């Protein structure tokens, strides 16, 4: 009921012949087998019992799904930290947090892909597929706000 009200308000505001909700991508949370989220889970599944580390998953997203070069994945940031009289270069990867909200979720957003469909191997700390989503299944459990 609430979604229909929002849709009607958007269509009325935009005064278009097209569906404003569809054009803006709002409200369509069903995932298909061609989505990035599903391809990430297929990648983790292809690793088998060994599993995939977070860095391997981020590398796959960066190079295969987003189309960037492998060299750009490993570029370091040039941030410095004052430590007494010395400057220390931190040198973390710029891509260190790439896709972390989608993979792990957030306190106010949704359950992440890794927590919902994977489990972590206690010895290697790599992610192993627990179950694959069904086609057209809602892959994210959105949290209700207070």
The order of strands across the largest sheet is 1-2
The CA-CA distance between the termini, in Å, is 19 Å
- Report the C-alpha radius of gyration, rounded: 20 Å
Mean pLDDT: 76
SSE layout and pairings?
Blueprint: H1 2-14, H2 20-24, H3 36-46, H4 54-65, H5 70-73, E1 80-83, E2 86-89, H6 100-104, H7 113-117, E3 118-120, E4 127-129
Antiparallel strand pairs: 1-2, 3-4
Walkthrough of the structure:
The protein starts with a helix and ends in a 17-residue tail after the last strand. The strands form two sheets. A two-stranded antiparallel ribbon has the order 1-2. It has a two-stranded antiparallel sheet with strand order 3-4. It is built from seven helices and four strands, in the order H-H-H-H-H-E-E-H-H-E-E. The chain has a domain at 32-129. The model is unreliable at 24-29 (pLDDT under 50). The longest helix is centred in the N-terminal third of the chain and has 13 residues, at 2-14. By secondary structure, it is of the alpha+beta class. The chain is globular, with a radius of gyration of 20 Å.
